[in-house]
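Reagents: none. Just compute today. DNA-directed RNA polymerase subunit beta.
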Amino acid sequence: MTEGFHRPTKLPPSMLEAIQGGLDPEAVSRITHETAVALLTRVRADPDPAVVDRLVTYTDEHGIDAIAELWSHASPRSLPGALWRIYLLRLLIRQDPVGTSFSFQRGTELITTVDPVIAGAAEPTGPEEIIVLADQILRGLYAGDFAIALERAASFCRINAVGCTSLANDRDAVDPADAARLTTKAARFSTIAEELAGCARLWRTDSLD
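Predicted 3D structure written out:
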């Protein structure tokens, strides 16, 4: 999972696809869950703003490698699996704020659900606004309602899935390869949205571990 990473870490095109699925929960090591629980419990018990800021920006300085080693193989519907996906989504946004905000804005114009309200991005959503949204979601894991943070991330993914699908339709006649890439990206966003929404439901029933 961590092959090919260098600091400053860049997200390979295959990474978004790689976060779909995961190992069987029984195969995930105990330490994976213990580190996630210990970190989250400690910070949420005393959410010092400086500590939360360092956790939010950790990968900006250190890359995604260490977090990948801890959490990347966890079940999608687990605490470490949820943390891993949120960090990767933030990395995706920060590496391509223009493209991500474009697909997000397109999605908000077409989606018929309440997801834009749940995601909570400023309107109109440009590159700066999409970066702020990413940081707000991650910060909410450590110093806010954890389930709401997951639901915001899930809504973000659903909106982008709709946006990428629409952009793929636009590109299909002129660039089929790019259209196929966008269609695949939309499918990945949809999958991650389902996984994060599932994690939020488990958290609300004290069943996310």
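The CA atoms of residues 59 and 66 lie 9 Å apart.
Action item: order primers for follow-up constructs.
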